[in-house]
Amino acid sequence: MAAALVNGRSTDRVSIADRGLAYGDGLFETVAVRAGRPCLWREHLERLELGAKRLGIPCPPRELLREEGERLIAGTLQCVLKILLTRGPGGRGYRPQSDARPTRILSCSEAPEHPLAWRRRGVAVTFCATPLGENPSLAGVKHLNRLEQVLARSEWSDPDIAEGIMCDVRRRVVGGTMSNLFLLARGCLTTPRLDYCGIAGTMRRRVLESAAAAGLETREAFVTRRDLAAADGLFLTNALIGIWPVRRLGSTELDVGRLPMELMDRWCEAAFTPDDWRVA
Amino acid sequence: MAAALVNGRSTDRVSIADRGLAYGDGLFETVAVRAGRPCLWREHLERLELGAKRLGIPCPPRELLREEGERLIAGTLQCVLKILLTRGPGGRGYRPQSDARPTRILSCSEAPEHPLAWRRRGVAVTFCATPLGENPSLAGVKHLNRLEQVLARSEWSDPDIAEGIMCDVRRRVVGGTMSNLFLLARGCLTTPRLDYCGIAGTMRRRVLESAAAAGLETREAFVTRRDLAAADGLFLTNALIGIWPVRRLGSTELDVGRLPMELMDRWCEAAFTPDDWRVA
């Protein structure tokens, strides 16, 4: 297995002139690979394409990403496939070069190991002090400007705390440092709106669709810490963890049993059923 | 002349696992080099050290940066020295690795050429629609998360427009995409506060000090577009351009003659007088 492909070549190095490094001028996707095939593949590709469109970066064709993904993964059953797309090298200062030759980097790493109990019995979660700045131009996009998450994630080191909740500068709840957040209250499943900041997770999208298909009322709304305190239950989602129920929020114990655990298991199972590389 | 040094080695490549690329987890400085020596060297080093402290990245000793700077510049009289410092490779997800081995990249490029008339007769400036998100944790720091500037800079392509003014999400004026902004009004020199966003420019700092030393009243304040319209004059600063008077703001012509051009020339000259590498 090659460790990485940069524009199709087996290497793990990029130019120091790449705008991904200089300005965080790019995007990334982190794809769970099971049985040698990608999970939520269509969702990842669609988000990458949407992000590329919003940043004005030419997106590589799906066939190319599929071909390189297959080549990189070959023989590996379970791993994480990271796709990183930048505007490429060059340009004078911030101004994007008119003839951008994007850099695409596919790399493969071991799947992170989290205690199984986190999925089954839930996780402890803290509140982060680092706020998320608002910017509608970038909201929802999984771009490479992630210093806010880095600072937030460095706020705690207790290994028993699985995630930190981030709020925007207006103190609205946005999500976890690396996950999206859902609240169950009065039978309705709510997740924070992402108009001003946050990342539109692939698993978030899948859960919204699956919940609606299961007849649950769903909505995207502005959420406050008071809403979290009043909720019947909370859970976190991302493409690698699937779903983590929240059993402790700050110093408050939550009753995981009030969440629709069976449904959530089914959503997870569906999300982790590998797609065909050609599904999208 | 070597084109670049990465951790002291002559190369122009970095690992794709570097957090500078993955998350924009780092800082940079862009130093004007004249007569083979750096300008505003002390200011650049101090800002780099302050930024490193705020991000929790170990900063290389000044002697090392001096030694590598001298080695890289050797024989070159005029160029731009870029120093890029990242938290280095690795770590699991956003969480900074506890044993960070920072990456320092020194690279050399040609000084940008701007029309001499821009310095003498002033520049035309536009307003950008892309807002700056607010985040006190990152405000002032010259970090690698610069997508907002990239998007703002791609809003115009008219080569006669030298710079774009950016406002924060509350519509307060912050500065140019690559420069700081000063307003002269009723004899007082004002520059936008940088509590919530923006970069604390080395030339901004120098102008504030020089103006105060010349007996001018100076202040850092929140600034609105109305303040710009009411000002007697405006100018832009950065370490490479020095000072550009503004002769047109959007569709409004400004009288550059109301600015203290002689003083500004002196400030520029002082800023572009090369320091000794050992000054700091």
Summarize the structure.
Two copies of one chain form a homodimer. Chain A has 280 residues and is an alpha+beta fold. Chain A has helices spanning 19-23, 41-55, 62-73, 116-121, 147-153, 202-213, 225-230, 261-271, and strands at residues 4-6, 9-10, 13-15, 26-34, 37-38, 79-86, 103-109, 123-127, 161-167, 173-176, 180-185, 188-192, 217-221, 233-238, 242-249, 252-253.
Descriptive report:
- Two copies of one chain form a homodimer.
- With 280 residues, chain A is an alpha+beta fold.
- Chain A folds into two domains: 4-109, D-amino Acid Aminotransferase, Chain A, domain 1; 116-271, D-amino Acid Aminotransferase, subunit A, domain 2 (D-amino Acid Aminotransferase, Chain A, domain 2, Alpha-Beta Barrel), CATH 3.20.10.10.
- The first copy, chain A, has eight helices and 16 strands.
- Chain A has helices at residues 19-23, 41-55, 62-73, 116-121, 147-153, 202-213, 225-230, 261-271, and strands spanning 4-6, 9-10, 13-15, 26-34, 37-38, 79-86, 103-109, 123-127, 161-167, 173-176, 180-185, 188-192, 217-221, 233-238, 242-249, 252-253.
- In chain A, strands 8, 9, 10, 11, 12, 13, 14, 15 and 16 form a nine-stranded mixed sheet that branches.
- In chain A, helix 6 links the parallel strand 12 (188-192) and strand 13 (217-221).
- In chain A, helix 6 (202-213) packs across helix 8.
- The longest helix of chain A is centred in the first third of the chain and has 15 residues, at 41-55.
- Chain A is globular.
